[in-house]
């Protein structure tokens, strides 16, 4: 029985070593980037968001080492840049935390936090969230998961930030490489109470809920066969590998220029050019 207070994929978090350089890189890929956000001293992190509809991507960097961001720093040291965690949308984080507790998983949180937001009219507002996490050890395919309740959606989904030169509209798939796709997909399936679905090439998909993006678990070899023209250099054997993005393909091709690689009907950004993240732009 699916979780009542947790619906589909909300956003993917890409950990980066140099936050401002990463933002400039994604601007060159045709994305509109939010102003930089700074989290609390306790969190010690900052971010840039890339807003889509109904989901988004987040570039996250450590500004000051703290106990809270120790797992993120460990990820950067071991893996390098790339998808470190993925959030679901929480209708009610407190109730969602109790739902997973009832299923035998001790939640981390719920935790309230906020970051300042400069609005398009020049006024200063705040983006406010309440999140909870599944236990850190419960990371299917090596990707941590959590749920995010947006208390101020109007300061996050700002219309001016949702228009991208590359035509990006929404996330379609989150790609996770693993030597054992069936095992890691089953792990996520248990965590969120969603059924798995076999893909034609042997990959295993786990719908995240509603009309949101699917998680797709596959081996590096399977990923290479999906996008044979794209170098997978820099990707791990197990971990978050890429994002498939619905878009206007002609706009993506123009915005990406020589960085874009045509493969299997998609316009792709190799992981080496996407801060450790394969980006595959496909027809909306």
Protein described:
With about 280 residues, this protein is of the alpha+beta class. It folds into 2 domains: about 5-160, 2,3-Dihydroxybiphenyl 1,2-Dioxygenase, domain 1, CATH 3.10.180; about 170-284, 2,3-Dihydroxybiphenyl 1,2-Dioxygenase, domain 1. About 20% of the residues lie in helices and about 35% in strands. The chain contains 6 helices and 16 strands. It has helices at about 20-30, 70-80, 95-100, 180-190, 220-225, 250-255, and strands at about 5-15, 35-40, 45-50, 55-60, 80-90, 110-120, 125-135, 145-150, 170-175, 195-200, 205, 215-220, 240-245, 260-265, 265-270, 280-284. The strands form 2 sheets. Strands 2-3-4-1-5-8-7-6 form an 8-stranded mixed sheet. Strand 11 (about 205) and strand 12 form a beta hairpin. The longest helix is centred in the middle third of the chain and has 12 residues, at about 180-190. The protein is globular. The model has no long low-confidence stretch (mean pLDDT about 95).
Describe, in short, the structure shown:
With 284 residues, the protein is of the alpha+beta class. The protein has helices at residues 19-28, 70-78, 93-102, 181-192, 220-226, 249-256, and strands at 6-15, 37-38, 45-51, 56-62, 82-90, 108-118, 124-133, 144-150, 170-177, 197-198, 204-207, 214-218, 239-247, 261-263, 266-269, 278-283. The protein is built from 6 helices and 16 strands.
Query: Radius of gyration in whole Å, from Cα?
Result: 18 Å
Strand content: 35-45%
Q: Tell me the number of helical segments per DSSP (H or I, 4 or more residues long).
A: 6
Choose one word for the global shape: globular
Largest sheet: 8 strands, mixed
- Please, what is the average pLDDT? 95
Number of individual domains: 2
The helical percent reads 10-25%
Any idea of the CATH topology of the largest domain?
A: 2,3-Dihydroxybiphenyl 1,2-Dioxygenase, domain 1
CATH superfamily of the largest domain: 2,3-Dihydroxybiphenyl 1,2-Dioxygenase, domain 1
CATH class of the largest domain: Alpha Beta
CATH architecture of the largest domain: Roll
**What is the terminal-to-terminal distance?**
30 Å
Category from helices, strands and their pairing: alpha+beta
Output the strand order for the largest sheet.
2-3-4-1-5-8-7-6
How many beta-strand segments?
Answer: 16
Unreliable runs, pLDDT <50, ≥5 residues?
none
**What are the secondary-structure elements, in order, as H or E?**
EHEEEHEHEEEEHEEEHEHEEE
């Amino acid at each position: 029985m699916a979780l009542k207070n947790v619906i589909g994929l909300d956003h993917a978090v890409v950990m980066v070593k140099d936050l401002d350089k990463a933002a400039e890189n994604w601007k060159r890929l045709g994305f509109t980037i939010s102003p930089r956000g700074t989290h609390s001293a306790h969190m010690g992190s900052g971010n840039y968001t890339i807003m889509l509809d109904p989901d988004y991507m987040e570039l996250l960097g450590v500004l000051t080492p703290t106990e809270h961001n120790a797992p993120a720093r460990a990820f950067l040291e071991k893996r390098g840049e790339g998808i470190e965690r993925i959030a679901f949308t929480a209708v009610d984080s407190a109730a969602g935390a109790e739902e997973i507790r009832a299923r035998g998983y001790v939640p981390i949180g719920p935790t309230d936090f906020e970051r300042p937001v400069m609005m398009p009219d020049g006024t200063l507002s705040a983006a406010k969230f309440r999140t909870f996490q599944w236990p850190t050890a419960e990371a299917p395919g090596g990707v941590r998961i959590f749920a995010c309740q947006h208390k101020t959606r109007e300061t996050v989904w700002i219309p001016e930030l949702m228009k991208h030169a590359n035509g990006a509209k929404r996330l379609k798939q989150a790609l996770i490489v693993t030597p054992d796709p069936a095992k890691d997909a089953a792990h996520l399936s248990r965590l969120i109470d969603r059924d798995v679905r076999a893909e034609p090439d042997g990959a295993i998909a786990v719908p995240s809920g509603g009309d949101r993006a699917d998680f797709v678990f596959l081996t590096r070899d399977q990923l290479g066969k999906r996008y044979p023209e794209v170098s997978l250099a820099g990707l791990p054997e197990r971990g978050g590998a890429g994002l498939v993005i619905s878009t206007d393909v002609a706009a993506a091709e123009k915005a990406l220029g020589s960085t874009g690689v045509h493969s299997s009907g998609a316009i792709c950004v190799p992981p080496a050019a996407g801060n450790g993240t394969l980006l595959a732009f496909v027809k909306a």
